[in-house]
Specification:
Blueprint lengths: L1 H8 L5 H5 L19 H33 L11 H4 L3 H20 L4 H26 L3 H7 L4 H13 L6 H7 L13 H14 L6 H23 L1
Helix pairs in contact: 6-7, 6-8, 6-11, 8-9, 8-10, 10-11
């Protein structure tokens, strides 16, 4: 090749000779060699970086929670129509759970009378009839009228009546088990008819105005079958 021929005739210095006189790269001539790091050193550096990042994230969460608690209304200030009422934490629900336990203990100490049982069945029939009437409103997409027919106190009223029936001595153990526990207060795979009805009505109200008629009819059918089951127990 040409480079080799020029080197032979002495016109171009050899690469080996030229490399000895080339200057070192700028800024690296006087720099000491980087110390070698062991795997343990690298792990310690990574752990320190992770600790600092995790600490900053936790500090941010604590600060955010402190601001939320400082600005959020107290649990006793919430009203059922408020959005925060439906998003309460477990700690904020603790007073309601304590009140529910107290009601259950009172029902066990003083079981409902036959007259109270009949009144509870009448309340379930009233809710069942309202659900039947709401079907036509859902098909016609008359959501405002449907919401007025099944107001927010429908589910609490149904739960009070059904819970009383589930503790009544006028019903057999199997009948009381079929009525079951309140929705959200039961950890069994099947909580009973009242839980199914309450869940369906609550989901319908939470999505009222956003659901299509077919979806609304599905919720109403679940609630209707559940209340029909409770009414049938009263007929028996």
């Amino acid at each position: 090749p040409m480079g080799g021929w020029l080197t032979v005739v002495g016109l171009v210095p050899s690469l080996a000779a030229s490399s000895a006189v080339l200057p070192a790269p700028l800024g690296r001539a006087d720099r000491p060699p980087s110390p070698s790091r062991t795997r343990r050193d690298a792990l310690q550096i990574a752990l320190r970086a992770w600790t600092v990042g995790a600490g900053a994230a936790i500090a941010g969460l604590v600060h955010g929670e402190a601001e939320r608690l400082a600005t959020a209304p107290r649990p006793d200030e919430l009203r059922e129509g408020d959005e925060l009422y439906r998003l309460r934490s477990q700690n904020e629900l603790a007073p309601r759970r304590a009140a529910l336990d107290a009601d259950w203990r009172e029902l066990r100490r003083s079981p409902p009378t036959r007259e109270q049982t009949a009144q509870a069945f009448e309340e379930v029939v009233r809710v069942r009839d309202a659900i039947r009437e709401a079907r036509a409103l859902a098909e016609a997409q008359r959501w405002a009228e449907l919401g007025a027919l099944l107001p927010a106190d429908t589910v609490p009223a149904l739960e009070r009546a059904a819970t009383l029936l589930a503790a009544s001595a006028s019903l057999t153990a199997d009948q009381r088990a079929a009525i079951g526990w309140q929705w959200g207060a039961c950890g069994w795979r099947r909580c009973g008819a009242q839980a199914d009805a309450a869940q369906a009505l609550s989901k319908l109200r939470a999505n009222l105005g956003m659901v299509v008629p077919l979806e609304a009819l599905f919720y109403l059918d679940v609630a209707l079958r559940s209340t029909d089951e409770i009414v049938a127990l009263g007929v028996e």
